[in-house]
Amino acid sequence: xxxxxxxxxxxxxxxxxxxxxxxxxxxxxxxxxxxxxxxxxxxxxxxxxxxxxxxxxxxxxxxxxxxxxxxxxxx
Length: 75
Fold this sequence. Notes:
By secondary structure, the protein is α+β, with helices and mostly antiparallel strands.
């Protein structure tokens, strides 16, 4: 998660994942990422209501979420 947090601050966002890999793409703004266990159904609904976007279908035991933040900081 630390590497994904760093990539998100630099404008990269998660678009896919599976066993031993994460696929990211560049964008024009930073992203926040979160990982939740698949068995947390109520939490998934609350996160989506709060603007989190699910990534993929889930890969046991996780589902990843992302949400855009403000513009990328130059520097």
